[in-house]
Design a protein that fits this description.
The chain is mainly α. It contains 16 helices and two strands. 71% of the residues lie in helices and 2% in strands. Helix 5 packs antiparallel against helix 13 and helix 8 packs antiparallel against helix 11. The longest helix has 31 residues. The protein starts with a helix and ends in a 6-residue tail after the last strand. The relative contact order is 0.19.
């Protein structure tokens, strides 16, 4: 009776406490059921958590799409390289027709526009001639570009500017593709090869009918020499682009632009007094054409040099065929020189090939990904 009044003893309380601990369901349930997300068809969180909203989440800022390197390079070559360069040939022809300005003198005037870039290099504290270990290749790149421009300006004086630009760009494209395959082992896709072959076919359509005049005495001889100079200009351009791709140092682009002007003056000034006769233009048209050639050529030089570091050099040269179309349009509407139906057909094939190459290489990449 006394034990009932005093309540259960300590031994009975200990048994009840142990029995309660034995029936706690949380640990056994945690081990009996699978973990959330561990089974592809059953997920506990799907039943215990509220469903997310149906609207798709927006991509984070670091995963948004942006143009790839090849896209940026080809667009830069098209808009900044090919279109301005298409005006250089007709303006050079206008300066020659107005005051018989020699090609080397026109090259000297163009090189003068590159010399002020030395101020930019000085402000940045970079050496004018580049680092000593790559100085030789940088000067070689400048020399090749000087030879390319000199041959192009000489060809424009004896060959219509549209045909000269056609041969120059066609030879640069073919030589760039062959050099890249042989020296850099860079392959091209089927669409790229289709675009390159189409561009070459368009150039052949433009130039082919004009080759029939090569047997007409002295005039035909000068015409043949003009086409040879245009071909050598394209070959030197492709070699220069390949050398530029091997340069990798800070301020590479302004350095090679300044070296082009410096080497161009060192080569052109003595050659002008030996091979040609200097002429001082005395009319506004010639000076305007000279200034336009210098500015447009500088813009094209910088844009092409940038583009070749982002895309294949053969594709860059193929996109630069837009220069041919612009030159043909100016040749007809400004210089009032005849444009044959074959020129229009070839220009259409060139534009179609550029569209194929550009569309194939237009792509985007996530901003969070590491660029190649």
């Amino acid at each position: 009776m006394a034990g009932a009044l005093m309540g259960p003893g300590p031994l009975t309380q200990e048994k009840r406490r142990k029995s309660k601990e034995r029936w706690v369901p949380a640990p056994s349930l945690a081990f009996a059921l699978p973990q959330a997300g561990s089974h592809p068809y059953f997920n506990l969180s799907d039943f215990t958590q509220p469903s997310p909203p149906s609207t798709p989440p927006s991509l984070p800022s670091h995963q948004r799409c942006r143009p790839s390197n090849a896209t940026k390079g080809l667009l830069m070559a098209l808009l900044g390289g090919g279109l301005p360069a298409g005006f250089v040939g007709p303006f050079s022809r206008m300066a020659y027709q107005a005051s018989h300005l020699p090609s080397l003198e026109l090259l000297i005037c163009r090189c003068l526009f590159h010399l002020p870039i030395a101020l930019l290099l000085k402000l940045r504290g970079d050496p004018l001639l580049g680092p000593p270990d790559v100085r030789g290749r940088a000067c070689l790149h400048a020399l090749l570009n000087v030879l390319s421009i000199g041959c192009a300006y000489s060809a424009v004086q004896v060959v219509p500017p549209g045909n000269a630009a056609t041969v120059r760009k066609g030879s640069s494209t073919v030589c760039s593709a062959l050099l890249a395959l042989c020296l850099e082992s860079q392959g091209l896709s089927g669409y790229d090869w289709c675009g390159l072959l189409g561009s070459t076919l368009g150039l052949i359509i433009i130039v082919g009918p004009g080759l029939g005049t090569l047997q007409e005495g002295t005039t035909g001889l000068y015409t043949a020499l003009g086409y040879v100079l245009a071909f050598l200009s394209g070959l030197a351009l492709s070699l220069g682009l390949l050398v530029y791709r091997s340069l990798n140092f800070p301020s590479c682009l302004p350095t090679v632009a300044f070296l082009f002007g410096l080497v161009g003056l060192a080569v052109s000034v003595p050659a002008l007094f030996v091979l040609q006769t200097p002429i001082l233009p005395n009319d506004l048209l010639s000076w305007t054409c000279v200034g336009a050639v210098g500015i447009l050529a500088l813009v094209s030089f910088v844009c092409v040099s940038y583009a070749v570091t982002k895309a294949h050099p053969a594709l860059v040269c193929a996109v630069l065929h837009s220069e041919v179309v612009v030159a043909l349009m100016l040749q007809y509407y400004v210089l009032y020189e005849n444009v044959a139906p074959s020129d229009i057909m070839g220009a259409g094939v060139v534009l179609g090939s550029i569209a194929i190459i550009t569309a194939q290489n237009l792509s985007c990449e996530r901003e969070g990904q590491v660029e190649e």
